[in-house]
Amino acid sequence: MDYTILVNKENLLPQDYEPEELVEIHEPMGCKLDKAYVNRLNKEAYTAFKEMQSAALKEGYEIFIDSSYRTYDYQEKIFNDIVRRKGMAHALKFVAPAGGSEHQTGLAIDIIFRRNGEMIEDQKEEDPEIQWLFANAYKYGYILRFPKGKESITGVGFEPWHFRYIGKALSEKLFASDLTLEEYYLS
Ligand SMILES: [Zn+2]
Prior knowledge:
Structural class: alpha+beta
Oligomer: single chain
Distance between the termini: 22 Å
Number of domains: 1
Mean pLDDT: 91
CATH class: Alpha Beta
Radius of gyration: 15 Å
Bound molecules: zinc ion
Number of helices: 7
Shape: globular
Strand content: 15-25%
Order of helices and strands: EEHEHHEEHEHEHH
Largest sheet: 5 strands, antiparallel
């Protein structure tokens, strides 16, 4: 498995691309858009997430995975739903087209958290859980994939909840140099 794989609107995955070593994950929430959806994630990425989750908990932050692996067809459904609800311009700006979401790699996670017993669904930059992740995710092989100020490079709006597993060697490098995965491939 190539943990550093680049997927975006210009680098689409084929419809039949299936990630290696997906494991079922058990988190308190299913995917926001479909509660019956079974979350799956690459095994190594999940092990790393569990370590990150334990470390966060020691600081008092209860983080969970909201959305992880999505199939090509599922991403297509999400895209079409947004087009119907908010129009094509909005969809193109905020939602990856089928094949263009790194959720299809089984290496991307959307984080949700629980505070005072309540699940928080509108994750914001200033949330302490999110701030902790910004500062620490790289130690577990994850990067904030769509940072603020890099929208024109990633082609995706700032998503403080979306993290991507790329392995520790590269996550440490990108964190230290403040580079996105796109910039790493360009350099
Ligand atoms: Zn995401």
